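Key result, reporting period 2: structure in, sequence out.
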């Protein structure tokens, strides 16, 4: 096993001439893609991995300086593609990983033919006319609560993020995922995630993008999708009727249909 494969717990399936790579959100790991990724193994080489500090990644590789911004994760993504991807790449990211993918498409646009943004947000904090969904005071309080009682914070926030009140098993799964992360790393990653602002980077990505949003999302409100749709040079906005921030888990069929329609137009 190579250093990069061990570092990011890289898993490969499928055998297509193009590659689809899946990157998870905060508090999650690659298993969250199990409802969606198998639908693409007959057409793509698929790559799933854990961000360093999450899941079964190599925790000893977590460098606070490197991962003090999302650029460190974008560099990891490009290393993974260099070693494991074949042909053109479709990047599928959830939540914070949508911005990791965006940064990677800016650094190496020639590597990508499309990006799928599931529940994206370039900035979570309201700023003037920009609606990110949270005030700075909201975020500060969230981070302070996390510092004081990480497990309690995870147990209360994870179900709200998942949404879908009629799917308690998914709410419990996300809670377990949050709680299983190393608290010290999770607290640092939370600050990087919730305090980052990549609005100025959005217009720099030339790679066609699908913005996939839920109709009722606590983390990424509709206004965020509208902002991205306005500022991404080439984009499609699709709203899934669903409550929560994880449609790849709670509405995988609707998600795959939207992705398929986007790819049919983009990869012609």
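The corresponding designed sequence is given below.
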């Amino acid at each position: 096993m190579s250093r990069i494969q061990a570092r990011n717990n890289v898993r490969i399936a499928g055998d297509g001439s193009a590659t689809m790579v899946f990157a998870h959100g905060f508090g999650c790991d690659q298993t969250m893609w199990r409802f969606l990724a198998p639908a693409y193994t007959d057409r793509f080489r698929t790559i799933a991995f854990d961000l360093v500090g999450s899941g079964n990644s190599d925790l000893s590789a977590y460098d606070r300086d490197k991962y003090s911004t999302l650029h460190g994760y974008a560099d990891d993504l490009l290393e993974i593609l260099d070693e494991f991807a074949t042909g053109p790449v479709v990047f599928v990211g959830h939540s914070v990983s949508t911005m990791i993918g965006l940064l990677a498409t800016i650094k190496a646009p020639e590597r990508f033919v499309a990006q799928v943004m599931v529940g994206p947000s370039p900035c979570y904090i309201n700023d003037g006319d920009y609606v990110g969904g949270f005030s700075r005071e909201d975020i500060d309080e969230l981070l302070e609560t996390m510092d004081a009682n990480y497990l309690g914070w995870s147990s209360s926030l994870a179900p709200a993020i998942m949404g879908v009140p009629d799917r308690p098993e998914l709410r419990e799964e996300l809670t377990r995922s949050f709680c299983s992360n190393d608290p010290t790393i999770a607290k640092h990653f939370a600050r990087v995630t919730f305090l980052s602002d990549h609005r100025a980077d959005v217009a720099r990505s030339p790679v066609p993008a699908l913005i996939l949003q839920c109709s009722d999302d606590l983390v990424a409100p509709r206004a965020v999708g509208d902002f991205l749709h306005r500022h991404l040079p080439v984009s499609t906005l699709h709203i899934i009727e669903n409550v929560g921030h994880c449609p790849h888990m709670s509405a995988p069929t609707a998600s795959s249909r939207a992705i398929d329609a986007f790819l049919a137009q983009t990869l012609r």
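The mean pLDDT is 95. DSSP finds eleven helices and seven strands in the chain. This case is discussed further under Risks and Mitigation.
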